[in-house]
Amino acid sequence: MAAAAAEGPGPGDSPEGPEADAPERRRKAHGMLKLYYGLSEGEAAGHSAGPDPLDPTDLNGAHFDPEVYLDKLRRECPLAQLMDSETDMVRQIRALDSDMQTLVYENYNKFISATDTIRKMKNDFRKMEDEMDRLATNMAVITNFSARISATLQDRHERITKLAGVHALLRKLQFLFELPSRLTKCVELGAYGQAVRYQGRARAVLQQYQHLPSFRAIQDDCQVITARLAQQLRQRFREGCSGAPEQAECVELLLALGEPAEELCEEFLAHARGRLEEELSSLETELGPSPPAPDVLEFTDRGGNGFVGGLCQVAAAYQELFAAQGPTGAQKLAAFARELGGRYFVLVERRLAQEQGGSDNSLLVRALDRFHRRLRAPGALLAAAGLSESATEIVERVARERLSHHLQGLRAAFLSCLTDVRQALAAPRLAGKEGPSLAELLANVSSSILSHIKASLASVHLFTAKEVSFSNKPYFRGEFCSQGVREGLIVGFIRSMCQTAQSFCDSPGEKGGATPPALLLLLSRLCLDYETATISYILTLTDEQFLVQDQSPVTPVSTLCAEARETARRLLTHYVKVQGLVISQMLRKSVETRDWLSTLEPRNVRAVMKRVVEDTTAIDVQVGLLYEEGVRKAQSSDSSKRTFSVYSSSRQQGRYAPSYTPSAPMDTNLLSNIQKLFSERIDVFSPVEFNKVSVLTGIIKISLKTLLECVRLRTFGRFGLQQVQVDCHFLQLYLWRFVADEELVHLLLDEVVASAALRCPDPVPMEPSVVEVICERG
Amino acid sequence: MEDDAPVIYGLEFQARALTPQTAETDAIRFLVGTQSLKYDNQIHIIDFDDENNIINKNVLLHQAGEIWHISASPADKGVLATCYNKTSDSRVQACAAVWRMPKELESGSHESPDDPASTAQTLELLCHLDNGAHGNVACVVWEPMGDGKKVISLADSHILLWDLQASSSQAVLASSAALEGRGQLRFTAGRWSPHHNCTQVATASDTTLRGWDTRSMSQIYCIENAHGQLVRDLDFNPNKQYYLASCGDDCKVKFWDTRNVTEPVKTLEEHSHWVWSVRYNHSHDQLVLTGSSDSRVILSNMVSISSEPFGHLVDDDDVSDPEEHHTEKSKEPLQDNVIATYEEHEDSVYAVDWASADPWLFASLSYDGRLVINRVPRALKYHILL
């Protein structure tokens, strides 16, 4: 402290020293104290990081060496500075002296009081030591006493503990003794859960002490009650009126009572079966034949909620209750679900089968959707039972049946269209009021079939709608679209349409009565339209609606088109045959039934020829409604007359000249033979092309060939020949315009007249001018 | 193997009637009857020399009228029957008669054809087969296996069985039957079955085929609507007793099993106009010949319904040759098909027939009087034979 006082004034002489340097000074003082108490030097030095503490020239430093300092001063400083420092030093010393004096004065009282205090303290401590000794002795006494008390109480304490144990035991015993009555009460009150808990608590104890007779008695009692309880539980369980959750509770309690799980599980399933069977039978009664069955959606809903819901509950409860049973239990459940599920499916299928005839697909699809969706839950619960797969199968089957149903429907629609057409064709025409024309009928049929197809497609499309739960099954994504809809439904229908149409060609009534020719014509045009446009349109539509992902081969459009074209061709050919036959029959009758030998000189064209021309014109109109004109061989407009006059003048003379020499008969045939050499062979029943001219040519060819053959079988008188001449000229006048190559008509009519001339013993042809006059007259 | 070209013979008149000389088994000989209203009609006896491909003809005058049908006796080479039209003013009557040709022509004596006028011989009338009451005769058929004593004629709606007596100079009506039904029913064709001891005859009328028992003259079977239109001709399979072929105006040829008259066994639809004539080959019944008014003759191979469906059956003698037997077995069963279409005619072909002496040769006759003699293609012939 003296050192601090001595060295302090160094920094203290700066004017603001006392305020600004206060912390510094305090720290310095701390440093001093620390030094004094031998605290680490480094720490103290760390704080006064200023000048080197070892510097011997530092006045305030601990290692100050006056000699060195003085030496340094003397060596470094000039005299003046030396003088200055000397005075400064002196001044500082004086200041320090005065400071010291002040300090001593100021602190004198404190020193005195401190000494007093220390003296007092000395006295006090002496007193305190005595008291402490006393305290120690007292404590020893207390300890002593306490030990003695403990020793005394030891015995009692043990007894009390024992007594407490006994008390607890007694309470337990009381519980045990009361147990039967409690149980009874519980049973009476129906608090089965409580009873089972009591029983559970007591069981182990009773089990343990059963060798004691009293416990035995209690146990027996308990067992009796428990048995009763179990019985009641079972009874409740069997009554089954309570719902599945309560039953599950019963089973749970019974299990807790330690009833054999195996048996319980059987019984549980049996009960569940009973309930589900009720559901099933209620479903079955709905199915029943007499009452009007609810609609299929309602049915599947009811089945879904009642049966499938019940099954779900049963399965969930079972799995919860009998989880301990392991795989055998699961198998049992699976078998159970499979069996009942199977019966459910049978019912559903029966119901769906009733729906097959219906037309409303959307309801059916919704019902199927619910059915399928509903079954996915138990399916997940009981994967082993395979209910989901079976459900999918059922849905697939229904879808297939639906497709075939639609195919049937389309066929029926086609047939009914045909029936309509037949009726329209057969309907008596009122005078002045034309029935629908063939073109209209065709348009009707075509659009009606197309709309049927579209409706079918749309309704079948419901099966693949995204929101339907089964639409993402592989069957519905692949096979259903390609094989089912495209091949089965659309291609199948087009094929069957072609077949139906073709069957008209092979109809047994070959005499032509069975099928109205107009129908043949119409069908032929329909098939041709299908070939050109409709088939590809329908198939494109189908492919678009049912994005076919399946890779299985499908019938290409071209094949179908070829089939349709073939059908159209056959129908048209058949039409030609039928119409040709009609006209042929007319001509044939007219030739066969007349007595040509004794006929009178012709005055008129025979009515039958006019009829032939009329009919041909009618056919021309009819065909013209549906088929294009077609190509005709270009010929000059008045060619008919020219050729006719040629044949009736020059050729006739060569032929009918009544000059007989042995070589003459050769000449009669010469001209016609030469002509035949240069003309192409006429194929009478040749295939037709799809145009009006070709059709008419076919019909006329058939008719005229018939006329020719019939004429050859008869014998003509002179006037008979002339009548044939007139008739042929008339036909010539009117028929040439219908055919592709009028030369053909000339040729055939030439043949007819020539043959008639051959079949005439007295061939005197009529003057061509007269023939013309007669023909023009009518 | 090149086939021989067809041989063509031209008659001066129209002609419909053709028959092989049935009783002749050595020479190939056909009889053709002409149709002319203005001149004397003729029967041409056509001899075909197979080796030299030459035709020899003899002409017989048939002054009674134009010939619609001709048939030769199976027992006597010189005897033949014709159906002909007798035209008297404003009336045509179809009659039938049995004739005998001059002796020297029976076996085809080759006379010089250069002087036809002098050699135009006439037929000797043996007897008439008519009975005014029965109407127009459509055809006459001989009992195929008999001694040439029995003949059936079809007259309008009557079927008449005649017994020829005193070397055919007298015809006695043995029995007859009539078609009953609505409308005017007329027979168009008839054939005598070679089976069942020659007791069956089949006839065609309108669209119906009927079978008759000649002993009782009663109908045994009836194929209604055998064709869509008129039935023109029919023929029995010579080797299968229940099979017969028919043809008609619906351009079809149908094959029937007379035990099942509801459905034809087979139908051919190759012609494009009425089929007028159908003939089974006498020995190889798979060969069927048809002639039509589309001027074509078609030879079809109906193996599947023939008596030799798997080719020629091996005789016991052949079994000794194992190699041949082997080739026999390896032969593929033949398919029914058209063997050939003959287009030599330019007019309707009304008659076709096989030669009686040579099973590989046939003749066809068209209305313009052209007779064409053709052969079965050699390849097929060997195929059938070997």
From TrEMBL, chain A:
A Pfam family this protein belongs to? VPS51_Exo84_N
GO biological process assignments: autophagy; brain morphogenesis; endocytic recycling; Golgi organization; Golgi vesicle transport; lysosomal transport; protein targeting; protein transport
Keyword Coiled coil recorded: yes
The record's section on InterPro entries has: Cullin_repeat-like_dom_sf, Vps51
A Gene Ontology cellular-component term: EARP complex
Location(s) in or outside the cell: Golgi apparatus, trans-Golgi network; Recycling endosome
Please indicate if the UniProt record lists Transport as a keyword. Answer: yes
Keyword list (alphabetical) reads: Coiled coil, Endosome, Golgi apparatus, Lipid transport, Protein transport, Transport
Locate the region Disordered. 1-27
Spans of biased composition, class Low complexity?
1-15
How is this protein organized at the quaternary level?
A: Component of the Golgi-associated retrograde protein (GARP) complex. Component of the endosome-associated retrograde protein (EARP) complex.
Per the record, the similarity remark reads: Belongs to the VPS51 family.
Protein's job:
Involved in retrograde transport from early and late endosomes to the late Golgi. The GARP complex is required for the maintenance of protein retrieval from endosomes to the TGN, acid hydrolase sorting, lysosome function, endosomal cholesterol traffic and autophagy. Acts as component of the EARP complex that is involved in endocytic recycling.
Q: What is this protein called?
A: Vacuolar protein sorting-associated protein 51 homolog
**What organism is recorded for this protein?**
Mesocricetus auratus
Name of the gene: Vps51
TrEMBL record, chain B:
Where is there biased composition of kind Basic and acidic residues? 322-332
Record keywords: Cell wall biogenesis/degradation included?
Answer: no
Region spans: Disordered: 311-332
**WD repeat ranges per the UniProt record:** 224-260
UniProt keyword annotation of Membrane present: no
Question: Keywords assigned by UniProt?
Answer: Repeat, WD repeat
User: What is one term from the GO cellular component aspect held by the record?
Assistant: GARP complex
InterPro entries, from UniProt?
Beta-prop_EIPR1-like (IPR059104), EIPR1 (IPR040323), WD40/YVTN_repeat-like_dom_sf (IPR015943), WD40_repeat_CS (IPR019775), WD40_rpt (IPR001680)
Q: Which GO terms describe its biological process?
A: positive regulation of endocytic recycling; positive regulation of retrograde transport, endosome to Golgi; protein ubiquitination
Q: Where is the EIPR1-like beta-propeller domain?
A: 7-299
Report the protein's function.
Answer: Acts as a component of endosomal retrieval machinery that is involved in protein transport from early endosomes to either recycling endosomes or the trans-Golgi network. Mediates the recruitment of Golgi-associated retrograde protein (GARP) complex to the trans-Golgi network and controls early endosome-to-Golgi transport of internalized protein. Promotes the recycling of internalized transferrin receptor (TFRC) to the plasma membrane through interaction with endosome-associated recycling protein (EARP) complex.
Q: Which family does it belong to?
A: Belongs to the WD repeat EIPR1 family.
Subunit structure, briefly? Answer: Interacts with two multisubunit tethering complexes: EARP composed of VPS50, VPS51, VPS52 and VPS53 subunits and GARP complex composed of VPS51, VPS52, VPS53 and VPS54 subunits. Interacts with SNAP29.
Looking up PANTHER family in the UniProt record yields:
EARP AND GARP COMPLEX-INTERACTING PROTEIN 1, WD-REPEAT PROTEIN
The entry's protein name is EARP and GARP complex-interacting protein 1
Q: Which organism is this entry from? A: Mesocricetus auratus
